[in-house]
Amino acid sequence: MATSGEAPESWYLALLGFAEHFRTSSPPKIRLCVHCLQAVFQFKPPQRVEARTHLQLGSVLYHHTKNTELARSHLEKAWFISQHISQFEDVKFEAASLLSELYCQQNLVDSAKPLLRKAIQISQQTPYWHCRLLFQLAQLHTLEKDLVSACDLLGVGAEYARVVGSEYTRALFLLSKGMLLLMERKLGEVHPLLTLCGTIVENWQGNPIQKESLRVFFLVLQVTHYLDAGQVKSVKPCLKQLQQCIQTISTLHDDEILPSNPADLFHWLPKEHMCVLVYLVTVMHSMQAGYLEKAQKYTDKALMQLEKLKMLDSSPILSTFQVILLEHIIMCRLVTGHKATALQEISQVCQLCAQSPRLFTNHASQLHTLLGLYCISVNCMDNAEAQFTAALRVSDLTTHQELWAFIVTNLASVYIREGNRHQELYSLLERINPDHNFPVSSHCLRAAAFYIRGLLSFFQGRYNEAKRFLRETLKMSNAEDLNRLTACSLVLLGHIFYVLGNHRESNNMVVPAMQLASKIPDMSVQLWSSALLKDLNKACGNTIDAHEAAQMHQNFSQQLLQDHIAACSLPEHNLISWTDGPPPVGQFQAQNGPTTSLANLL
Q1: Does the bond joining 45 to the residue before it have cis omega, within 30 degrees of 0?
Q2: In angstroms, rounded to a whole number, what is the distance separating the alpha carbons of residues 73 and 62?
Q3: CA 476 to CA 261: how far, in whole Å?
Q4: Dihedral in degrees, nearest 10, Cα atoms 204, 209, 210, 216
Q5: Is the distance from CB of 373 to CB of 599 less than 8 angstroms?
Q6: Which of 20, 61, 64, 231 supports an S-S bond with 71, CB 3.0-4.6 Å?
Q7: Are 437 and 430 in contact (CB under 8 A)?
Q8: Each residue of 468-487: pLDDT tens digit?
Q9: How far is the C-alpha of 464 from the C-alpha of 462, rounded, in Å?
């Protein structure tokens, strides 16, 4: 290919040019690209060229083929050779970064960690790579659920970024650490750290898109912190700021000007991903607050955006966003009386989780919980119990305490309805006692625990005790605009006053419950309220109002009944019996019809 008189550079450049041409062809001709790169070794190239070629081959094989063993062999050679060459940082550290990524893919985490530690140790004079490798090792520890080690590394990164004069990357390290501290529920450490981050972000003068993306990261942490604590009213100012911030970002143009400090060469998330994330936290807020039509609107927008992004981008975070959005909208649909649609969306979550073992590991508990909620809505109480039990079995209670409390609260409601599970019920209620050592800091879940106590007391005929618990729920839910809990508490209090013969007080509870339930809209509370209004008006001799309420009750009954039949007739209804192993996909048989008593449902 090269004559003896040609300089070595010319054959090298020719082969490199051919390789790049084949790699970027449409479709890529990877085999020919690999042949060209392998031909470089025939010329006994100098060490620099040899190491770089091993890196290029490893990278092409890793990203474009399934031949991970050969990719690994080339990357290991690139890393080994480049360590002995001075001023060869880019090849050296890119090889280390890519090789550790490949090790993780092959479940060789114990090979990846020492490799990254060595690379971090020798990269201190190269700010970009030192920061990038610290982020990478911290992420590896996070995936292994070793959040303490990850936080330590992010702290080291923040201090290093400060020393090399990069306040921007210092903020990224600190915000990432704040995110992990929130996951660990170390709230005492989170507050001062977020305060420091707020100051750094506001004082930093640099690229406007980078500044706004830091603000989005900071505000997303604040909003999720409030939502975790069940404070949907207190979060509103932060959420509004976040929504304004993402609007600002969408009007800014990406400047191609590279930062002067190489340590600043990082982005938290692409602009389009941030947009979806803001939609997502807005949906979380709307669902908790009981603005379900608003939740539906933002879910539709976010899912449409995700579909477009997934055509061009295979980033796993997009599937995570999609699953979390679906989880929230499924709960909304169960409340608004659209069970058949909810069931089809649960099946969609199963399919997404079946494609990614990591996604399934992180969302298995939520998936069983959603199936448990669906089972309650179609009155399959044995299946509901089995689903919630499965959810508790597969959940990681160290990082998902709120989820654990949510599952236990719903399981308690199943035991109350079954009426014969006293021992199991009292054992659960001891663990979620809202008056004493409540296990999580969530305002919303504590209010729900009072409601469950009130419901139990109501079924046991201890009406004064029930009223005390329900008034506590009302006080807490009014303080934070928890509309669904308010509506449920009002209608149950109305029912208690009706049983006690206090019709006026009952009416004072049921009418606002009905108004609130219509606004949400909550189909079950509307059904319950209309039944009570019918009986109340009948007892008070208001024939016209009683007839109107009876008509409403009839309409709600019909809607729920039709939806119930539609859901139970779907082949996906068989998902209610899946309690173990990977998510079943495409294993459904059509049902003959509903398997539960409709009389019980209504």
Answers
A1: no
A2: 11
A3: 50
A4: 90
A5: no
A6: 61
A7: no
A8: 999 999 999 999 999 999 99
A9: 6
Residue pair 196/253 in contact by the 8 Å Cβ criterion: no
Give residue for tokens 């604590």: 229
Contact 366, 601 (CB under 8 A): no
Residue 86 is classified by DSSP as S
Residue (of 122, 105, 103) closest to 113 by Cα position: 103
Q: Could you tell me the pTM of the whole model?
A: 0.86
CA atoms of 200 and 479, how far apart (whole Å): 33
H-run or E-run covering 11: helix 8-23
Tell me if residue 291 falls in helix, strand or coil. coil
At 548, list the tokens: 């109107």
Q: What residue type is 131 in one-letter code?
A: C
What's the one-letter identity of residue 517? A
110: left (phi over 0), alpha (psi -120 to 50) or beta: alpha
Model confidence pLDDT, tens digit, residues 339-389 = 999 999 999 999 999 998 889 988 999 999 999 999 999 999 999 999 999
Please tell me the predicted confidence (pLDDT) of residue 8. Answer: 52
For 234, which DSSP code? T
User: SS3 string of 95-157?
Assistant: HHHHHHHHHHHCCCHHHHHHHHHHHHHCCCCCHHHHHHHHHHHHHHHHHCCCHHHHHHHHHHH
Kindly give, in sequence order, each residue whose CB lies less than 8 Å from that of residue 346, ignoring residues fewer than 6 positions away: 330, 367, 370, 371, 374, 572, 575
Length of the chain in terms of residues written: 602
CA distances, 281 to each of 213, 220, 236, 297, 323 (Å) = 16, 8, 12, 13, 13
pLDDT at 602: 40
- Asked if omega into 521 is within 30° of 0 (cis), the reply is yes
Report the C-alpha gap between 501 and 513 in whole angstroms: 19
pLDDT tens-digit series, residues 538-581:
988 889 999 999 999 999 999 999 999 999 999 999 999 999 98
- Token representation of residue 484: 């669904």
What end-to-end distance do the CA atoms of the chain give, in Å?
A: 83
Across 386-411, average pLDDT: 88
What is the 3-class SS of 486-523, one letter each residue? HHHHHHHHHHHHHHCCCHHHHHHHHHHHHHHHHHCCCH
User: pLDDT value at position 596?
Assistant: 42
* Amino acid present at 43: F
What average pLDDT score do residues 108-112 get? 92
* CB contact burial 472-493 (16+ within 10 A = b; e otherwise): bbbebbeebbbbbbbbbbbbbb
Token pair 């013969």 in the structure block, residue? 501
Q: Which residue has the tokens 């009223």?
A: 467
Decide: 549 and 571 in contact? Cβ < 8 Å: no
The kind and range of the H/E element at 345 are: helix 339-355
Q: Is the pLDDT of residue 601 over 80?
A: no
Is residue 497 within 8 A of residue 505, CB to CB? The reply is yes
Say if CB 448 and CB 476 are below 8 A apart.
no
Residue linked to tokens 């019909």? 558
Cβ(523)–Cβ(556) below 8 Å: yes
Structure tokens at 521: 């809209």
